[in-house]
# Entry
Amino acid sequence: MQLRRTPAWALLVHGLVFVHANGRVAYQRHDGDATYVLFDKGEEPCVSPDGKRVVWRTITPGSADGLYALMWADVDGGARGRFRAGYVSSPRFSPDGTQLLWDEVGDDHQAGVMRGNRDGSGAQVVFLGADPVFHADWLPDGKGIITHDRDGVYWVTLDGKVLRQMAVRDITGGAAVTSDDRFLVSPVDANRLVYSAGVDADPAMQKALQEGLSTGIFLYDLTTQRRTRLTGADTYATAPSWARDGKSVFAHGFRLGKRPLRAGILRIAVDGAITRIAPGREPSQWPHARTRRVPGRHLGRACRRPRHSRSRRARHHQ
# Structure
């Protein structure tokens, strides 16, 4: 299959991984590509800084108790395997690509943050909070992590020391968050966060979601304590993930109104401009890697993006 010519600006934002509308993990080498490398069905995917390996969560085959597994596969070459099984979620590569971070519920039913080597060895606890924590992510320098529970956001060193703690309500202005929401540090500004939180839905959005609560994407400046909403009342968006240049955020969602956008992967610029770039959900682009152009050949199985796909209503916190 031939790829469309990649515009020069796309070299700054290549390497997006997400869950395709067909349920399979998909890797888009460059923004604007009409084909994707497809992997098995899964969720919560992430890509290594060099763009060579993808990791995602899936239900353990044959499991009767709902156990999950973190699976990995190389983008080129076909090698694949299982990284870890258990009550695991939210894998994220370290800035140097040698380690993975993930959330895990242990045998003692405590939910915490774990890290381990890329080959699966050396698994160890990074942080155990008083309450379950969600969607841990690396700080840009790789020396710590950020994670949250329903009441607090925590900046933690790799040996478990809490460097900073803020109440969720102080960041969100009182808006509630759930286990599906995220707080992520900008790759270019350690004082800037992107986060998702519940917002009241206007009548049109209530009709689309069939409920009164929507989800919005926000920026928060730790220095000025200024909160900026990136998505308007006509846009539902969740699962934010920074683009590596720090100038935009990827999210899953849709837009209503006079300029509608079908449910899928959205790119939301920090000035509020929104474009839809692919069908699917749970987008992730490693934000701290050096950019480079990856050859346009596809050794994995490819899927051509349909020109016209049926609009699907996104479910709240899908």
